[in-house]
Design brief:
Length: about 170
Amino acid sequence: VAEKLVGEDGYLFLEMYRENGAKYIEDIVYEDVPDWDTFVEIIDDIVENKDEDYPKLQVVVIDTYDQLCDLAEKEAIRLYNKKLMGTDKPKADTINSAWGGFGKGLDKAIDLMLDKLWALKSVGVSFIVVAHVKRTDITDVMTEEQYTMLTSNTTQRYFNAIKQKLDFLG
């Protein structure tokens, strides 16, 4: 779809961490992103060299959001533990124990992701985030009325952080 909309040089598909669907799409232009450092390297390269190396690039596709969240969590934990070096405070081994707990680790991971995605926007490159989503029917306890909600396989906090920033969600 991206190639039909923006041409062969107009998109870049980033196959995040444990995803592997790109290899099944004929002639797709993609990069494997096995870790956070690779993600940062690719984004920074696009931002720094947009005019020279990526003049036709219009969109970066992230496949998939949950895998990007996993990478950002690992980076948030790494940064927190690096900050603690030389202190007697215990290292964090989960996102919930990093950055003081109470969701602050999740906030740090969200900031890391959004900073990189917005760096793309700063040079005129949009992004599409592929996510595993589903519709869930919910019954209101008080009124017993039913409504449908779009949910994700990420935490609701991660899902809300990105869905409020996208131009479209499908």
